[in-house]
Design brief:
Layout: H1 55-68, E1 69-71, H2 80-84, E2 89-93, H3 99-107, E3 112-117, H4 120-132, E4 138-142, H5 145-152, E5 158-164, H6 182-190, E6 192-202, H7 205-217, E7 221-223, H8 239-246, E8 252-258
Helix pairs in contact: 1-4
Bound molecules: S-adenosylmethionine.
């Protein structure tokens, strides 16, 4: 695998990642903190939170995780062809509760969606939605997407990248936690096939400006629009988008393409 630039202020711990305990006593379910990423000496783009898993989310995790889930343990390369039966695969980072992910998967069954998030209730929610809607093109990765990209995905293996309403980290001292930064984009673009689409959206104006600046500065990407993109029809409204709109925020989409 080629060597992307190190990410984050302290770079990444060289220690062997620790596998977290699986959720269920029979060894199934997503592992807690699979790569020890909550403890890595690296600035994280997410807030580790303890959240209650409902009975139906837990049930979906117990039954569906063994076939549709993968822990981001940073230990092995993920065989996307085998995992998705040969479909082209788009990575969505931070799907939240997964409603928009499931809608996009239903609208485009010829594309596999690998949703990556650290939020266990959301993982259960998305798996449940996939099953209820008969969607066979969704898989769920549990853990930090940076470790997934860096350690587990092969160069040029992704047909696209989606980041919808990433945590805006509005306070100045937290800006370093924002996901869309030059080092992240440099890493992510190595995993994109030529022509792959990078689609970001945010309702936080200063973050939109940062996204535009960072994505425009990445030499392997070209902007499909002059500045921000008009909202594409294929992106459904997301839960966080709704909250932003309720507060009167303006939403910006950004659409870039990996150069050939
Ligand atoms: C503000 S929420 C947006 C959720 C959803 N896209 C929406 O619009 O409703 C951001 C999500 O990104 C996830 N997240 C943040 N950093 C991440 C990372 N490095 N790897 C995986 N998930 C991450 C968080 O756990 C959270 O669920």
């Amino acid at each position: 695998m080629d060597e992307p630039r190190p990410l984050g202020a302290t770079a990444v711990s060289a220690a062997v990642p620790r596998r977290g305990k699986p959720m269920f006593p029979d060894g199934t379910g997503p592992a807690a903190d699979p790569a020890g990423s909550h403890h890595e000496r690296r600035i994280r783009s997410f807030q580790p939170r303890r959240s209650r898993v409902t009975a139906s989310q837990g049930e979906a995790l117990r039954r569906l995780w063994p076939t549709w889930g993968v822990d981001v343990d940073g230990l092995s390369r993920l065989d996307l062809d085998a995992f998705f039966g040969g479909l082209p695969v788009v990575l969505e980072i931070g799907f939240g509760m997964g409603e928009a992910t499931a809608q996009m998967a239903a609208a485009d069954p010829g594309t596999g969606i690998l949703g990556c998030d650290v939020h266990t209730p959301g993982q259960g929610s998305l798996l449940g939605l996939a099953e209820r809607n008969g969607l066979s093109n969704i898989r769920v990765a549990n853990g930090d997407a940076i470790i997934l990209l860096r350690e587990m995905l092969a160069p040029a293996s992704l047909a696209g990248l989606r980041v919808y309403f990433p945590d805006p980290w509005p306070k100045k001292r937290h800006h370093k936690r924002r996901l869309i930064q030059p080092e992240f984009v440099a890493l992510a673009t190595t995993r994109l096939a030529p022509g792959a689409l990078v689609h970001c959206a945010t309702d936080w104006e200063p973050y939109a400006e940062q996204m535009l600046e960072v994505l425009s500065a990445e030499p392997t990407l070209e902007n499909l629009h002059d500045g921000y993109a008009p909202r594409p029809d294929f992106r459904p409204f997301t839960r966080f988008e709704g909250q932003g709109l309720d507060k009167g925020h303006v939403v910006h989409d950004l659409l870039f393409r990996r150069r050939g």
